[in-house]
Design goal:
Helix content: over 70%
Oligomer: single chain
Number of helices: 3
Strand content: under 5%
């Protein structure tokens, strides 16, 4: 439980750093996208969740979108 609080605080801190150089909407989209994709990947690796091709394709779309947002943002 303490680890969750520490990682949550670090995550919010890193989000606040990102907002300095990125627009709020983009920073939040990237933050939530990384969190969503990361949760699914952890589930597949450690909790034996489905590794269905459709899941992998859609997670890849999230990751590609996050990278794309970085390229198109000043």
């Amino acid at each position: 439980m303490i680890g969750l609080a520490i990682f949550g605080a670090v995550s919010f801190y890193l989000l606040s750093l990102a907002i300095v150089s990125l627009p709020l909407g983009v920073a939040y989209a990237v933050w939530t996208g990384i969190g969503s994709a990361g949760s699914v990947i952890v589930g597949m690796l450690f909790f034996k969740e489905s590794r269905d091709l459709k899941r992998i394709i859609f997670i890849s779309c999230i990751i590609i979108s996050v990278v794309g947002l970085k390229f198109v943002t000043n």
